[in-house]
Amino acid sequence: MTVLVLYDADCGICTRSACWLASHDRDRRLDLQPLQAADRVAPDAPPAGELLAALHVRAADGRWHRGGDAVLTALDVIPRWRGLARLVRRTPLHLVVEPAYRLVAANRGLASRLLGAEACPLPTRTAVGGPDAGRGDEPSPGA
Q: What pLDDT score does 126 carry?
């Protein structure tokens, strides 16, 4: 079973983060979907208001994770980033993950503008070096 990541497709930094995850998920262990399609792709998802408040990830065991914990859950699936995710969870570093996530989430519009991360379509697997298409449109030039 893949790990479902529900991100806000209307948020630049959220979409760029999803694009980053897609580009590092060579084994296709993540199913990256816009939260706007949650009712179709995840009938068991939390309510829309909760989804809009934070990143949500449904782990392979079916449990939902949100916010900073969701980020670590997604990173744990990617072999190259698994060690970092596990290190953070097992050390005092875990104490800063959620406050840091909340700070960015509370200012995601501003952060998106400052980073030039306007909402962009999630690239296809072909665009990020994967074996086939199927994750959305090609990225726009300069994205």
A: 35
Residue ranges covered by each domain of the chain: 3-114
Tokens 């939260």 identify what position?
Answer: 35
Q: Which residues contact 20 (CB under 8 A, 6 or more apart)?
A: none
Enumerate the β-bridge partners of residue 66: 56
Asked if 29 contacts 3 with a C-beta cutoff of 8 angstroms, the reply is yes
Q: What is the pTM of this model?
A: 0.78
What type of residue sits at position 64?
A: W
Q: Give the integer Cα–Cα distance in Å for 64 and 75.
A: 15
Indicate the pLDDT class of residue 106, thresholds 50, 70 and 90. Answer: confident
CB-side exposure of 2: number of CA atoms within 13 Å? 14
